[in-house]
Structure formats: structure tokens, C-alpha cells
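Sat 14:20. Reprocessing the chain from the morning session after the first attempt stalled halfway. Input below, unchanged.
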Amino acid sequence: MLVNWTLLTYFVVGVFALSGFSRGWWKEALTTGLLAVLILLLQQPAIAKAMIDLINAIVSYVWMLAPNFLSAFFNNILTVKTTATQPFQFNAGDPSIWIMMLMVLVFATHVTGRSMLPNAPTSAGSALGALVGGFNGFVMLNLVREYVSGSALPTHGQMAMAGGRSVASSGVSIQATQLPNFTIMDSLIPWVLIIIGLLVFITAVNHKAKVKLSDKGFVKIDYRKPYGYK
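Finished this time. C-alpha cells:
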């Protein structure tokens, strides 16, 4: 199956821009900060592997305390081979793990943004939201590309993008056409995206919460409505 990467990019960026237009810039900024961290983990694979190892250690500890039927659930329902003494473990080089983590975390930021700020955006907030949302869509799509290629993961994954252009998994072949000659991991591009993402996130935090000293000298946090929301 052929996939035109340029058209796919326009579609994904457009969808996220529309989402940002309806949500406003502040809610999208939470996702932007998350994406900056994920790019940083790709840029620093040793840190990414250490994080996965920590998660695996936590899973192993919880597994020892969990009932025996949990192993049967993984074996029979999820078709993941485990035993009572050998828990499920994440593979830092498996692209599907990172793609799943990306989707779960992005969904979590959407839910968090909605719960922390139920307000509707103004026209200015919607315009900024469309801009930030489009940026998020571009970064997310290119993160998936990096995960599938596996070149920036701690170890090479089970799927591969041969020559940066095709993906083969379970007998299904997907070939991407009109891929750009650069990726978000080339040269200084990842650091530029990381800086932009963190600046947007920090700006959002500053617009929502402000640390102040009370009259009695206690530190308190004042929560307020960010710019661009009714």
C-alpha cells in the first residue's frame, strides 16, 4: 500500500489544527510539552532505556503482588507470554511500545487539559490553538516515523523503515512516497523543537498558575484563567 507522506502530513496537521482551534492554545500546550520530552528521549536513548528499565522494575514488583489470574489474562486475552514468576516487560527497542505510549500520553494530556480548564477559548485563543495544534500534529506524525524506523531507539525495533521509506509488519507492507529528505532528528532540528515545546509549555504554566507569598509569608499558588479563554 502506497502512502503519500506529504498529503498525510497536510491531513494530520489540519486535523490537529482544527482540534486546537476548538480547544484553545493552553490545552494544546500541555501536549506540546509532552512531545518535547518524547523528542528529548529520542535524542538521549540512554535516558529512554533507563526510563523503560525503571517501568519494568515497577511492573516486576507489582507482578509479585498481583493475583495469579493476571498471568492468564496476558496469556489468553493479550496473547503475551508470561508466567507467575516472569512478568510482562517492555522492550525499549520495540517501536509499538513507544507508539502506544505516545497515544496514551497524548490522550492523558487532552483529558487533563479539559478537566483543568473547562472554559471555551476566545477567537484569539482559538487562533493560537490552531497554530499550536498544527505544530503538535506535525511533531506527532514525525515521532511515529522515528519510532517505526527505530534508528533513534535504544535498540533496533521489530519493524523497520527500509531506506526510510517502507514498513513491513505481519505480512502487511506500507510504502511511503514523497518523504522529505530530513527528519526531526537531523542536526539541530530536535533541539529547536525541544526548546519551542518547552517554551510553549512554560508559557502555559505561567498563564495558569502564579507562585506568590501571602501576607504571613507562606508560599501560595494563585490559579487564574489563561489568556485567550472566556
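The chain has a mean pLDDT of 84.
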